[in-house]
Structures are given as C-alpha cells and as structure tokens.
Amino acid sequence: MSQTTGASYASAGVDIEAGDRAVELMKEWVKKTQRPEVLGGLGGFAGYFDASALKRYERPLLASATDGVGTKVDIARQMGVYDTIGRDLVAMVMDDIVVSGAEPLFMTDYICVGKVHPERVAAIVKGIAEGCVLAGCALVGGETAEHPGLLGPDDFDVAGAGTGVVEYDRLLGSDRIRTGDAVIAMASSGLHSNGYSLVRHVVFDRAGMALDQQVEEFGRTLGEELLEPTKIYSLDCLALTRTTEVHAFSHITGGGLAANLARVIPDGLHAVVDRSTWTPGAVFDLVGTAGQVERLELEKTLNMGVGMMAVVPAESVDAALTTLADRGVDAWVAGEITERGDKATGAELIGDYAK
Question: Positive or negative CA dihedral for 112, 118, 121, 122?
Fold first, then answer.
C-alpha cells in the first residue's frame, strides 16, 4: 500500500522558519528607531505608542499617511541592493506628514515577497529603520507576507503607514498663504521615488542602457544613480517652523512640481516658479534626451531637482535659508505668490532652466 504525504504550508511555498529568522535579524535595526513613548518590542500583534505624551498639546491633531515606492523596487531587485529602498519608503510617508507641520511619531511597514530570504528582508528593514532615524520617528511594527505563486521568488514590494502630531493652531496650509510670500525650493537627491515606470521605459526599452553601465555625467553607474535614496526633509522642515514663520510646505512627488505646489495654493492666489533659479541634475536630462520626452511631460512626472518647497513670508526668507544652509540643505528662492488673475491653475513654471 503506497503512502502519501499530506499537504503543508511549506509544500505550498510558505517558509515560517525563514520568516522567524527574518524577524530576529531585523530586531537590532528596529531598536535603533525607538522613542521614549514606544512600549513593548518587536513580535507582538500590535505596536504601542504612549499617547499620554500628547498631553502637552492644547488641541493635538493626528496626521496620517500611507505610501509605497513604486517600481523603484525593481531597480533594487535587479541591483541586488536592498538596504536603501526603505529610506525611500520613509521619505514618501513622513515627508507627506510633515507638510502639515506635524512631527513624525511612528511608522509601520508592509513587505510582500514571493519567497522569504531572511537577510534580504532584514536589509529592507534596515533601510526603513535608518529612514525613521532621519525622520525622527519610531518603527513600531510591520508585516512580512510571503506570496508564493503570486510573486516570483525574488520579487517584492514595500508599503508603509505613518502618524504624526501637530498643534491645531500651528497647522500649516493654504489658509496661511498671502500675496507676496516667497517660494523656497529644497534640492532633491535625484529622482526620489516617482516616475520610475517612465524612467525604466526610457533607459531600458528605448535607450538600451544597462544598470552596470558607467555614466560620465553621474560619476557612477546608471544603477547607482537610479537607486539613490529619496532625501528625507522631515527634521529640516520642523527646524524651519521653529526658527521662522512658515505658511506651507509642498512635498514634490508624483505629478511634478507645479501640480504638487498647486495643492497648497488657495483660490485667488497663484504660485509662479522661475526655472532659471536652478539647474536640474544630469539624470533628468538623460531621461528627457534618451526618451525624447517633452519638457512638460518630464515636469509632470519627475521632480526636476526639487524635492520639497516651503512658502514663507518675504521677511522670513533670510532666516529660512540660513536654517536650511546650517542643516546642509541646498535651498534657494524659486518663486513667489501672486494674485491669480486669469490664471487657470494654482501654480506654474516660467522661463528656462539655468545651464
């Protein structure tokens, strides 16, 4: 009589022991993000944050956001480099939160893989933890899900959610913006984490470039340039709110500079940004040239060298630029707020980029 072996979770492709190993490897990195308000450790069913810390606020508003890093994860997969993509994730979540003037408090992550490679998962979490340190928030928990049959053994994706807090009467936004305000641009570290579907189509499908190809303008390989982590501005923005008056921030992500800036411009006013105040990095020129992408298409897809913008009163410009310079942030006055007049949108770019 033949003997058959029953089905199991392992035979279906899920390795629980590998998952447990990944948790052990990531613990040291999660610990580095802890704030005094965090209770418990990694491995519970939920993360805990002591809300009594919010008693110092008169009327605390909780700000929350969730995001991912899009198809940039495919560059990480092809490069076999997994310890930077987490910084992109934190930037995409926490820099949305800080736009309101909120202090980042804590974050959770979700990592979905075709097969759990413990060291790979731990490397991803290492990047998330490093990003949390740069943003000043705690990583209080997360989930690693193994999806065999839906994802290939080397495929993965990451997403995260975060929470911050801001005092009600210090909430930043469009209602504070006035005619004559200055628009300050903060330089991006590169492409950040948006537009990679276009970028990948251009550099791989149209230009036939390889990730290990040296690019003179970059001073490194194409892959290294494409994998450059997104700059995290959270603590820089908070420093601005402490040292000078700020009316609004705009995180320049999907949709480009004009569309994201327009999101914080009130009805009746208009933001005019002068391209001649900066020169986009070489990677933007490469994408435009290699793909014969028109400038307006580039601008509504990529950040064009600006990752965050601050709208401040004209009298606050010097203090704002000094604060950012002291923190090592490349920043400049890029435009101003005017009456809308017959303008159809809340923000526009004028002129040509500086050479």
Answer: positive
Query: DSSP character for 114?
Result: S
Q: CB–CB of 312/264 below 8 Å?
A: no
What is the per-residue DSSP string for 59-96?
Answer: SEEEEEEEEE-TTHHHHHHHHT--SSHHHHHHHHHHHH
List, for residues 84-136, the tens digit of each pLDDT value: 999 999 999 999 999 999 999 999 999 999 998 888 998 999 999 999 999 99
Sheet containing 269-274: order of strands: 248-251, 306-312, 182-187, 331-339, 269-274, 347-350
Q: What is the radius of gyration, based on Cα positions, of the chain?
A: 22
DSSP string, 163-200: EEEEEGGG--SGGG--TT-EEEEEE-SSSTTS-HHHHH
Q: Which tokens is 201 given?
A: 């189509």
The helix/strand/coil state of 3 is coil
Answer whether 247's CB lies under 8 Å from 177's CB: yes
On the CB side of 260, CA atoms within 13 Å amount to: 28
CB 189 within 8 A of CB 87: no
Tell me the pLDDT tens digit for each residue of 131-145: 999 999 999 988 889
The answer to whether the CB of 329 falls within 8 A of the CB of 177 is no
Q: Which residues of 175-185 are buried (b: 16+ CB within 10 A; e: fewer)?
A: ebbeeebbbbb
Where helices occur in 179-316 by DSSP H, the ranges are 196-200, 222-226, 234-243, 256-262, 282-290, 295-299
Q: How far apart are CA 337 and CA 87, in angstroms?
A: 32
Q: Give residue-wise pLDDT tens across range 18-70.
A: 656 666 666 665 666 777 778 776 666 788 888 998 999 999 999 999 999 99
Assess whether pLDDT exceeds 60 at residue 9: no
Q: What is the DSSP letter of 130?
A: H
pTM of the model: 0.91
